[in-house]
TrEMBL record:
Family annotation (SUPFAM superfamilies): Nucleotidylyl transferase
Organism of this sequence: Thiomicrorhabdus marina
Pfam families assigned: tRNA-synt_1c
Glutamyl/glutaminyl-tRNA synthetase class Ib catalytic domain segment(s): 35-144
Keywords for this protein: Aminoacyl-tRNA synthetase, ATP-binding, Ligase, Nucleotide-binding, Protein biosynthesis
Membership in a protein family: Belongs to the class-I aminoacyl-tRNA synthetase family.
Protein name as it appears in the record: Glutamyl/glutaminyl-tRNA synthetase class Ib catalytic domain-containing protein
Length: 310
């Protein structure tokens, strides 16, 4: 996805564009306000891959005079921890990033937490169930251990949905065989909204129309597009979603919070913000003669704009 000249991006339909081409196409739509978001999950400390994604989103949105928000994806309440939420704000401040909407402080995050929005998300799930676009699934993880795609055991059984005993799966296979053919969970067995339902709903609420995420989430984007269409979420259905190459672990493989890629807050790891800024400049293949002197996000933005519009 990447060559020596610039970062290459791929959408959920496998179209590939360079970052400068995407920038040009976005700026040509002068009547459109582009809105994006930083969406960290508080299930571990942010690693360098997260920071590259945040910087890329921030740089592109700021360069096209768009708006960017912060959304802390605490939908997995069993893994979310207060220290990780606090570290998110500290890391963004350390990096010098600002945002236009969403929580500005740890205290404000309590208002924005997904724990407050389980009722509307449950109502969406019930609507899909009533419309035959979702079904109850009582399969255990052990039963599905050897399957990479849900085999459809419960698809035609018409099981009664029993919260705490069964999950709800979106009938993606029936909705669109071409775009996505796996029936992912939208309401969890522990009676909480699934990640994808919550994410799509919040993006629709926030009128998000431009998302940059890692290449490992292409399948998620395909599923979310199909789900949004079934929910009549026109804003998200029309949103542009582009996927960038991943930052790999020094020992190989992708960086992952669940695998302990960052055991402490990154600002306490010995790295300086300047080092992260320059890592991003190299990742984006910026050719500004001042790249080795960049030290702040604002300076990186100037270099990014010089590179992207040349």
């Amino acid at each position: 996805m990447q060559d020596s000249a610039c970062l290459m991006l791929q959408d959920q339909d496998n179209e590939v564009k360079s970052l400068p081409v995407l920038y040009q196409q976005l700026t040509m739509q002068q009547d459109k306000m582009w809105r994006g978001r930083l969406a960290p999950t508080p299930s571990g400390y942010l690693h360098s891959g997260n920071l590259m994604n945040f910087l890329l989103n921030w740089l592109l949105l700021r360069s096209i005079n768009g708006e960017i928000g912060l959304r802390i994806d605490d939908m997995d309440l069993t893994r979310s921890r207060p220290q990780y939420v606090e570290a998110i704000f500290q890391t963004l401040d350390w990096l010098g990033l600002d945002w236009d909407f969403g929580p500005q402080t740890v205290a404000e995050q309590e208002t924005f937490s997904f724990v407050n929005f389980q009722l509307p998300l449950r109502q969406l799930s019930e609507r899909l169930l009533d419309n035959g676009q979702a079904y109850a699934c009582g399969c255990s993880r052990k039963e599905l251990l050897n399957y990479s795609v849900y085999p459809g055991f419960c698809r035609e059984r018409q099981n009664e949905w029993l919260p705490k005993k069964s999950a709800l799966r979106f009938a993606a296979k029936a909705e669109s065989n071409e775009q996505f053919a796996d029936d992912w969970v939208i309401w969890r067995r522990d009676d909480l909204a699934g990640y994808h339902l919550g994410s799509v709903w919040q993006d629709q609420q926030d009128q998000i129309n431009l998302i940059l995420r890692g290449a490992d989430l292409i399948e998620s984007s395909r599923f979310q597009k199909v789900l949004a269409k079934s929910l009549d979420f026109s804003e998200f259905t029309a949103a542009q979603i582009w996927h960038h190459p991943l930052i790999e672990h020094p020992q190989g493989g992708k960086l992952s919070k669940s695998a302990g890629a960052q055991a402490e807050p990154i600002f306490q790891s010995g790295l300086s913000a300047k080092m992260v800024i320059q890592q991003c400049a190299n990742w984006l293949s910026l050719t500004d003669s001042r790249v080795d002197k960049l030290g702040t996000a604002t300076e990186l933005l100037d270099s990014f704009c010089n590179h992207i519009i040349r």
